[in-house]
Design goal:
Blueprint (H helix, E strand, L loop, with lengths): L6 E10 L14 E6 L8 E7 L6 E3 L3 H6 L9 E8 L4 E6 L5 H10 L2 H4 E5 L4 E5 L5 E3 L3 E8 L5 E4 L9 H7 L10 E3 L6 E5 L3 E7 L4 H6 L5 E5 L4 E3 L2 E3 L5 E3 L5 E2 L5 E7 L3
Antiparallel strand pairs: 1-2, 2-3, 3-10, 4-11, 5-8, 5-10, 6-7, 6-9, 8-12, 13-14, 14-20, 15-18, 15-20, 16-17, 16-19
């Protein structure tokens, strides 16, 4: 069985008809996301690329505790973003610039001013952001990023720039935090070297750079992992996985990262 995960291109109203290399858009549709099919071994984890020509909706995701309490199962969603390209002036709206009560948040969502109440963070290649559940957020225009997330499709839209799509004000306001995004959850990746990006509670994520350090191998030992090359090819059990692809390693012992090649490695946290 191939280690390479199946790819699915998803059209979005805010997507692009031309994708950056190495992606090719054969349909001419506005592709906003490139998904990699989650394997059964890691079905709680989803990896995708996101490409924007317009801003995404202002939205929020519930926590796992909230979805369990609502009878929806384990459908909470925490996610993280790694910027890989951005146009000048591009930004990510994450959290609020000033504390916001629920009633004020609802009113701002209804009149559209919620967009201006978000705290907008300039973004460039190499910038990393972790987005906990309950964080109100929006991805701006002109951004390409890699998203690693809990595999949940529950999104509550609070504001969508007048697009004719359903909003979820009651559900969204009920779970949203009217607070700032903690500064410790965003940083710029240095040019070289391995970096631990996320360690729980739901998944772990590292950048590796030429080889697999013993500390990373220990943290990912005993289970499968997803591998997303950032530059050059890696091999999984001898099979090449290129930039723009995602591979499943049954164990990290099967993963080879040549010198000078960077990649992300991700796995769920097992309790």
């Amino acid at each position: 069985m191939s280690a390479r995960r199946a790819t699915r291109m998803v059209a979005k109203p805010w997507g692009r008809d031309r994708l950056p290399p190495p992606f090719i858009n054969p349909s001419g549709a506005r592709i906003g996301e490139v998904w990699f099919e989650p394997p059964a071994e890691l079905d709680g984890l989803l990896v995708k690329y996101i490409f924007t020509s317009e801003a995404l909706s202002v939205q929020v995701h519930p926590s796992e505790a909230q979805t369990l309490a609502a009878g929806l199962g384990r459908q909470g969603k925490e996610e993280c973003w790694l910027g890989i390209d951005a146009e000048p002036g591009a930004a990510l709206g994450i959290g609020f610039a000033k504390p916001l009560e629920a009633d004020a948040m609802r009113a701002a969502a209804l009149d559209g001013s919620i967009e201006h109440l978000l705290e907008w963070h300039p973004v460039k290649a190499g910038d990393f952001f972790y987005i906990p559940a309950n964080t109100v957020h929006a991805i701006g225009a002109g951004i390409s990023l890699i998203e690693v997330q809990q595999n949940s499709d529950i999104t509550y839209r609070l504001y969508d720039y007048g697009r004719p799509r359903e909003l979820h004000l009651d559900e969204g306001v009920a779970v949203a935090l009217g607070a700032a995004h903690p500064a410790k959850l965003r940083f710029h990746l240095g040019a070289d070297g391995p970096l631990q990006l996320v360690e729980g509670p739901h998944f772990r994520l590292d950048r590796i750079d030429g080889g697999l350090p013993a500390s990373v191998a220990r943290r990912y030992a005993g289970g499968p992992a997803l591998v997303i090359p950032l530059s050059g090819d890696v091999t999984i059990a001898g099979e090449p996985i290129a930039r723009g692809e995602c591979g499943l390693a049954a164990s990290v012992a099967a993963l080879k990262v040549p010198d000078g090649v960077k990649a992300l490695i991700a796995a769920t946290c097992r309790s």
